[in-house]
Structure formats: C-alpha cells, structure tokens
Amino acid sequence: MATNPTPEMRKSLGVTGLTMNAMALIAPGAFLWLTFYIQATTGSTAPSMWMGIVVALLLCLSTAICYAEMAKIYPGTGSSYYFAEQAFLNHHGAWRYARLSKFIVGWGSHLYYWIYPGVMVATMGILCGYVVGTLRPDLMSASNPGPLFMMLIAVVFSFLIAYIAHRGISGATSVNVVINFVQIAALIIFSVMALGYRLHHPPGSIAYQFDATKGEAYNYEFATTSATVNGATTETVVRDSSGTPQPKVDGAGKIVPYHISYPTTDDKGNFLTHPTPTSVIAVHSVAWAFIQATVAILILVGFESVTAMGGEAKNPKRDVPIAVVTSLLVQGAFCYLIEYFCANYFLNSGYTMQSATSSAAPIGDMMIMVGDALFGQGHGRAFMLIEAFTVFLALIGTTLSCMNTGARVTYAMGKDRELSGHLGALHSKNLTPHRAIWTLATISAIVGCVAVAVVFGDASAPTDATIQALPHGIFSSFGYFSHDRLAALPNTLLMVTLASNFGTFVLYMLSCITCMVAFHRHPKFNPILHLAIPLFGLFANLACMAFYLIGPFMGYGSKREPLYALGIAAVWAIYGGIYFLRSSRKTGRSTLIQERVTSNSSV
Membrane-spanning regions, if any (predicted)? Predict the structure, then answer.
C-alpha cells in the first residue's frame, strides 16, 4: 500500500462542509430509531425521556461553547487532544504538564471514539434485522432479530464505511450533505404524522393496536382464550394458520372495534402513556432526568467532530466555531426535541412504553401504525420501509462522520508518537489517515458484535413463549436462551452504549477544564464564556458520571449495565497508564516537559 508520512491534509472544507459533517454525526433520524428503545428500557425513568434530552443538551451546549472558543485560538487537527497540548503548553504556570494533559485527554477520548462507531454498526444490524423480519416474518422476527445475522451486518458495515472514509473527506462530505437533508425531511414527516394521530384520536375513538408477532396494526379487538397453569390464568390471542390475530365478535356476530385510551400506568405500576402534552415535557423526577441524560448524551455527541478537521478547513478560526454550535442547535435543540416530543405523545393503549421495551425498533412499529391510519390498512408497512431507508442513509452518515473523527484523533496521537507511529501516516494519494481508519474499522466490527450478542438481555428479555415462536435457524434464533438466562445477562447494547457515553462525559469534562486553562490570564478572557460556562459543563458532566453509580442503587434500573460500563472504563484507564509509562521509557521522553516552547498564544 502506498504510504508517505510527509504529505499534509488538503484544505477543502468551508463552513457548510464542516457543519454538514457534524450534523451527520448527530443524525437525529438514526438515533431516534436506536435510543428510543434503549431509553424505554432504562428502568422506571422513561416518563422523563424528553427532559433527559434537555439535560444532556444543556451539558452539550456548554461543552460546545468551550470547543468553539478554543478553536478560535488553536486551529488545527486533533480536536480536544490538540487543544489540551496547546492550552497547557502556552500557559505560564502549567506548560510542564502539556504532554501529560494531552495524553490523558487523547486516551480518554478514545474510550468514546473507538466504541461509538461500534454502537452505530450494531444499530445497523438491528435495523436490517427489523426490516428483514418485516418483509419475511417466516425467516426472521422483526421484534427479535437473530444475533448472528446482526453480527454479520455489523462486520460488513464497519468495513464498508471504512472504505468510504479511506477514499477521502471531500467525498464523505458530499455524502453527508445529501443524507442530512433526506433524514431531516423524513423525521419531520413522521413527527407530524405521530402528532396528528394523537390529536385525531381522543379517548374512546376507534384506532389501531399493534401486534408484535405479525408486525402489523389492526383496528379491532383481538379474540382471546383463557388458560390456567399452576393456578395462574393467562389470556392468549387467537390466531389463524398465518399467525394473524383473529377479531373479537360481539353477541350479534359483529367485529368489536378497538377503542383507544391513554392510561398512565398498568396494574403493576409500569409506565404506559403520557395523558397530556405537558406530561411529556415535565421533569417528573430530577433523578430520572439525569438517568435518561446518561443515555441521551449518545444522540447529541458529534458537534465536536469538526474540531478534528481543522487541518482540512479553509478558514478554521472562523468556520470551525460556527459549525460546532450550529450543528448542535439544529440537530439537538430543533430536530431531537420535536421528534422526541411527538414520539412520546403518540404513545397510547394500542402501543405503550411497555410495547417499546420489547421491540427492536419501536419507532418502526409506530410508523406502521400512523401509516395505516393515514394511508389505509396495510400501507403502514410501506411507509415504514421508506422511512427505514432514510434511517439507513442516516446511519451511513453518522458512522462515517464518527469514524472520520476518531481516526483523525488517533492519527494526531500517532503523529506525536503517543500511539504507535504507523497510525500517524497519511495515504499518499487520498491524504487520509488510512491506517487509523482500518484499525478503527476492525475495532468497530468487534464492538458491534458484542453489542448485538445479548441485545435482548436483562429487562428486555423476551418470554419463553416468544422465544419458542421465533423462526428456527442459525441466523434467526441462535443465541436466544431461555427467558431466565437472558434476564440474568446484561443487555450488551446498553452496556456498550453506557461505556461509550462514559467516555464522552470524561472527554467533555476534560475539555471544559482545558478551556479554563487556555483562557486563564489570556488577553481575550471573558468570565462568562471562559469560566462560568466551562464550570457549568464540568459539574454537569460530573453529575452524569456520578449517576452511573448512584442510579442503580437508588432502584432506577439494573446495576449490571452501568457497573460493567464503569469496569470497561476502569480497565481502559489502567491500561492507558501502563501504556504511557512503557512508551515514555521506550522513547526516552519524560512525563513533564523540561523545556518550554512558546507561541503567539502564550500567556
């Protein structure tokens, strides 16, 4: 493979290209499809889903301002890793710690940048499994796709995206521009339809209920039979030979229509629906909102990605700060808050939050229902498939952007010999950090396989009856154990997501600290921008990290996933310390810098 360590990156990105790359990484259509399921399964905190996004958004905005301010004085490639080096190196009292600080920031950021693409390729596996199950329910269950099938998709998708990233950033930007427009239009259409469905179906009106077995919506009551086993009576839906639920009939032989309602909880206290629009945006519980924020941060990260592309920006001091804040405001403050409000307000007795916890793609289920309501019975599936295609495009965009960002941070550390030197080389023709890209592709494939291995573990474990009803085959049912065994295992998708999110909180917290160091005694110091806002971001990130420990012991969800995520972070930190010491000894470099190199930004 042609390799030349000397060429420099091509400066080809304007403010639009930078913003589009960051927006693609935030990708609201893709994440709504993914995180709604994860957030629904996060213990009893689901009523605060919308407010959790607001908390995460405030945290991200404060961090985004820190990134934007640092990009104004330190244009370059490497994002927070580069900022940490420059901030300390140019500080009159902290310059000795420049190497140590940049290594801590760079190593900590890899917990996020190396796991996050794996979560995305796992999501692609789940999406493909859901679509195949919808089209061929005899081969795959849409609600519970086969783990091996999802793993195969994750591996293929990892290397396909790596190939696009390897070809060059200009081509990747063009792809992201198209993807952003398509997926934003698609999510607005769904949001309007979901909101319209709720407004046009008052309590008691005839509406649809969703059947997870067939993956279809029906506007009639299901006929059931009662069975008593060991003193417990259960109701079973009557189905024909194709699995279609049969309608209930009244004394006159007429089909009983399904009448919608909006109950808040079931008889066990499980949350079902929001009775009013104010309930969707209400706090409900501060602790619940913070628990939801620890998951919701996944859907907002990415705004900082453009700071890793400073070397490819035409005017980095002007355009990178604009792109950082604009991408977050458009995707987070506009797209996400609208679509999450509409999806939550849509919930009804025909599709409750409990329904969402047992489906691989609850948003896809909702699309089928609103599509049937608007276009007629049976047409909801076609609407869902069209929307799923836009999600497919959005997943390409977000995975491509995060792989580009992660590879460039790895490239910067390799170039500095803080990681293996071969990772700091550019391809002589494409001018991309190709070795970092292919390394990240391999890691993403492995993480993606782990994420989907037990995606229905813990609280989302299907019943034994559901497992028995799965189509039998190595790609459809292999990996599904009994309900009790799955319930005893951690949900690997949630575990990997929380590990990535913990890396995000660490990175954002360190970036807020770096911002305060960068502007300490700097001529451009502003007490609001460079002290108050970074301090808010610092404490907000610390609070979210604290809930990894506090939340489970307060009874807000399973202890397994957050504690395993903390274990992954601890192992990564310990390995980082060992790697730093061994690398320093091998290259003869000291932990603290012995001689200061000043620049124009010195204070």
Answer: 12-36, 48-68, 111-133, 145-165, 177-197, 281-301, 322-347, 382-403, 436-456, 493-519, 531-551, 563-581
Query: What's the Rg (C-alpha) of the chain?
Result: 25
* Domain boundaries 15-215+266-551+560-587, corresponding CATH code: 1.20.1740.10
For residue 217, the SS3 value is strand
Q: Are 285 and 293 in contact (CB under 8 A)?
A: no
Residue 170: both structure tokens together:
């200009």
Q: 395-419 pLDDT, tens per residue?
A: 887 788 788 888 888 888 888 888 8
Residue 520 · residue 91 · CB < 8 Å? yes
Taking the C-alpha atoms of residue 88 and residue 95, their distance in angstroms, rounded to an integer, is 5
225 with 235: CB under 8 angstroms?
yes
3-class DSSP state of 434: helix
Q: What angle do CA 66, 67, 73 make, to 5 degrees?
A: 95
Identify the helix (H) or strand (E) that includes residue 39: helix 28-40
Indicate if the alpha-carbon torsion angle 120, 126, 129, 131 is positive or negative.
negative
Residues of the chain with CATH 1.20.1740.10: 15-215+266-551+560-587
79-113 confidence digits (pLDDT tens): 788 889 899 988 888 889 999 999 999 999 899 88
